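#onboarding

Welcome to the new folks! Below is a worked example of what a typical request in this channel looks like: someone posts a single protein sequence, and someone else replies with the predicted structure as tokens. Don't worry about understanding the tokens yet, we'll cover that in week two.

Example request:
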Amino acid sequence: FGSSVWAWSKSLSLHPTSPLFVHPNPFYRTMTESEYKATSVQMAWDNHFAAFGTQDMEKILLDYDETSVASIFDWTSGEVSTYKGLSGITELFTKLFKELTDMSEMAGSVVEVVEDPKSAWVCWKCPSSGITSATDTFIFGDDFKIKRQNVVMTKKA
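Example response:
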């Protein structure tokens, strides 16, 4: 994703198991949990980004473990929600994917992936699903699992 501005393509709105799904990388295939082991922040980020775009819960969970913590602050409601471990991360993405019903306006302006310190930062929005702005910061452990994720978002009132 060399561009500083990105948007989901229509093909990324399909689940990877769909016969109509065409991944932009011709060598792409879904890995099983036993096959997947990220060896860099970029590799973990690429998996997370693809899994988020296709709302693939199994694939997204490959980048988290029982020590993972995600916190979300919603400017619109003023609420902070914290999710811990794999069950918490599952709850987080189950809720978020239910909100992201229309990805047609999903776009981002910043994606920064850094190997040292192991982190990633993304600014995005999806007005078609009611999210007017969001930013995520990811901190990765030495095993390249997401240990901490902080999200700040604003939703349509």
